[in-house]
Amino acid sequence: MLERVKQKCDALGIKPSRRVIGVSIAQQRLMFFDDCVLQKSHIVSTSRRPPSNIKDSLGTPRGLHHIAEKIGAGAPPGTVFKGRVNTGLHFNELEDDDLAKYLITTRILWLRGNEAGVNLGGNVDTHDRYVYIHGTNHEDKLGTPASSGCVLVNSIELINLYDQVRVGDLVWIED
């Protein structure tokens, strides 16, 4: 995976970041590398639809991205975010109808594509599609495709990841 990141960075003229997040859609795994050494591997959920970079597809976008924004520092695990704003509520405080939905919880790593025409710009823009790495109120579904395009992570693991990564760190998503 890191070799593919390096090749893509070379092709785009981008300097690889020290920290890299790799997401395998096929394995439903997120891997965190620091200085080319695997630090942690987490079970995640990507889209229940086929991978896709196209707007409104609800597929997890592939390719080279970077962390554009980090949202939610200090929020307790399970805190619900709406429109990237902390509601101050834990998902267990919501009505049953809301709990059935896949909520954005705990932390948000908002992604931006690095590849023009692939995941950046036009109808394939990852950032404009609001694709995140974030927590979920359905951790029992991790390991199976379940999201609407985002990468869902266990809350405690996400907090640890959030504290280790920086804005600008690269994120590679592959089938």
How would you characterize this protein structure?
This protein has one domain (2-174): L,D-transpeptidase catalytic domain-like (Beta Barrel), CATH 2.40.440.10. The model has no long low-confidence stretch (mean pLDDT 96). Helices cover 14% and strands 35% of the residues. It contains three helices and ten strands, in the order αββββββαβββαβ.
Write a brief structural summary.
With 175 residues, the protein is α+β, with helices and mostly antiparallel strands. Helices cover 14% and strands 35% of the residues.
The oligomeric status of these chains comes to: single chain
Question: Using DSSP, what is the number of strands?
Answer: 10
Quickly count the domains.
Answer: 1
CATH top level?
Answer: Mainly Beta
**SS strand fraction:** 35-45%
Q: What is the radius of gyration computed over CA atoms, rounded to a whole number of angstroms? A: 15 Å
Summarize the topology.
Elements: H1 2-12, E1 19-24, E2 29-34, E3 37-45, E4 63-71, E5 79-82, E6 85-90, H2 96-99, E7 104-113, E8 132-135, E9 151-153, H3 155-164, E10 170-174
Parallel strand pairs: 1-10, 8-9
Antiparallel strand pairs: 1-2, 2-3, 3-9, 4-7, 4-10, 5-6, 5-7, 7-8
